[in-house]
Amino acid sequence: MAETATTAEGAVDRRDFLTILAGAGGLLASAAIAWPLIDALAPHGDAAAGERMIVTISDIAENSAITVYWAGLPIYVRKLTAQQISANQNTVPSTLPDPATYAARVQPGYESFVVVVGLNTATPCMLEGNAATDPRGPFDGWLSPCDGSAYDPLGRVRAGPARRNLAIPPYKFLNANQIQLG
To answer: What kind of architecture, by CATH, is found in domain 49-181?
Structure first.
């Protein structure tokens, strides 16, 4: 009978070991499943870096533009010529599909720079007009290759199915050579 008790004790020890092993495996599996879910909720490094972005604008020549990507959006920064400034200051806002004054589209003290989100407002596609070889349309601004919408150099809609002006992202001038997005 002593042998039977030892076997029963051995079975209890094995049963305890299997219970602990199964519990540890379950915890490990739960952690393996939960980790990607928890990690997905945390902001990634590139998202945190995209919150504030400094862009050097001193290299932009008149009548040219650059494209930068911020918060997953193409941002167009264009330096206007004196002729573009005077032509667009004299545009009567009430004649536009989405009325906006010149002063509402630029920042005081830096009137020669325009900063807009480079996505068409009617169909979400990138606009043409930043590169020297791109067509700019009849208003010397941007054109949508998707639907033909035309924008002036301030990003105000002028023709086509689009009914809203290009969005202006949050930005500020740090100095005459740099802007900060975000």
So the answer is: 3-layer Sandwich (2.102)
